[in-house]
């Protein structure tokens, strides 16, 4: 017996609404409600692989669009087919509920819908045994692109405009009366509309034009800036962004993802907002209809409302069934001739691939410089003029390296702004009020590093929203402001960028963490653990203190992903927390992945590079500081602490020059909360080396994170402390 209860309930709700519809009159607002229900039915049918319901609901969606826009000669006939289709879906769902199959034929009904609307239906294809292949969707028509270079510029600028809009609309939400924010949102939409019109990108132009009109009314005080208006503008910006990315994929010959957006619903919402109406205004409620017809009394309705469930909120994301538009709008030819525009010559757009090539070439130049320096050091009687010229060459090379690396450095501001939008959406779904504050958003980081650090930041922000901050009711009870706060702060420290994510929520519950860890078998005893030891358990796989699993958290994978990603970037993460006062996650990662600051060490005839960020200290231990402990192996007493000894030559199978720790050098490495001693023959010195990828063959070699070309032309392996620790433990 298939569980179709959710789908059956949605179909029954649709049938009930159709029965009580006044004079078969379906307007744009009420059509949005029906389309929402049909979309829910399609979604449930897809999950259950019931292709017949999917295709019937899809056909009804197309029919409904024709009815709403008065494109049917026989509107009453179309309404009757809507009722027939709803009854057919009820029949199919009931059969699947009882027998897991439907033996009837829906082709006759689909043909009647096609005949009524006067065109072929666009339906999802049937898979094996007549069931739908989930996720299959009709391919949307491609945009006609005339000038690829201009469209590429529009894509870059358009996405920047959308980011600018998101930031300012969130600012406007905090200060709805600030007309400056309205103006700064209005202008990007106007620019997108103008350029899209010039490039004949009609769908983008029309949507931007409608949003521009809406904001024009807001800035002229004809309508109020309300939360529903903020939602509409954000949804519209999301749709514009999706359209632009779709064009970008098309130009780059990438698979073009369907938008899965019903534009008529979004445009209907914009029109209602322009008229100053709430989204539910103008829709005649079922209770009012029943009372007017004398079917029930007002008391009956009041009693029913006490136990009725709230309808799901309207969201952008309905399936696009074919590509249909309302009456085309005439756009002024003046938009095609954008004159009087000032050109900013202080900046220049450069293809990122060219920039990466430049960085690579500068890296090669630095390597060549090191080789020249090595050769020069072997000639004590070198010509003085040559020595002077080469010294000047070295200074120029170093300056060129710093400048070229600076070209790829960008402010972390954009990443922080994306977090702000994420917090808003998560807070809205969780029923929480949250403000976001930034500090140090102008702090610069390598563009490639930004892409790597984004996902860990998303998980940490989600954790703060879902776990850290309380609901408004809980905060008021504890004497806190109703609105919570998340603070994002960035700053440079040494050769790293530090990103702090702090909230003023409930803080980490140590007892709950310990209880979960004991139940999961992560530890057997909590005695002797420091607060930091307990806090860091939230990074353990499978450990979550969430009471229930949601679409945001609760499965114990998010913070585990954070730890892995940060360590992969040669970074580290720390936690500060106080009960009732909040939690702070402090992440430190290198500014760039292209260069590493390291210490060169020698073992036998091989030279290795150790990241300076992982080195705590170096020493030559006295004989009495070396011991062998039962079941723990060799240890070195470092300032009263016994640390395990790793013999690097044993791990890599090479012949060392020194085996006695008292004759060799010990490097104390740190990785997370663990420290170990690494035995090497000698320390050559400090160097800033260009990281080279060792290729797919050595990609997964434990203990090695990359390579670098040394001054003598040989390759030195860059060692990974975490991998070395695991190798020494036999993992």
Characterization of the model:
By secondary structure, this protein is an alpha+beta fold. It has 5 domains: 5-135, HPT domain (Four Helix Bundle (Hemerythrin (Met), subunit A)); 148-280, HPT domain (Four Helix Bundle (Hemerythrin (Met), subunit A), Up-down Bundle), CATH 1.20.120.160; 354-408, Helix Hairpins (Orthogonal Bundle); 410-590, Heat Shock Protein 90; 595-728, OB fold (Dihydrolipoamide Acetyltransferase, E2P) (Beta Barrel), CATH 2.40.50.180. It is 47% helix and 16% strand. The protein is built from 22 helices and 18 strands. It has a 6-stranded mixed sheet. The chain has a 5-stranded mixed sheet with strand order 2-4-5-7-6, with helices on one face. Helix 3 (51-68) packs antiparallel against helix 4 (75-99), helix 6 (148-174) packs across helix 15 and helix 13 packs antiparallel against helix 14.
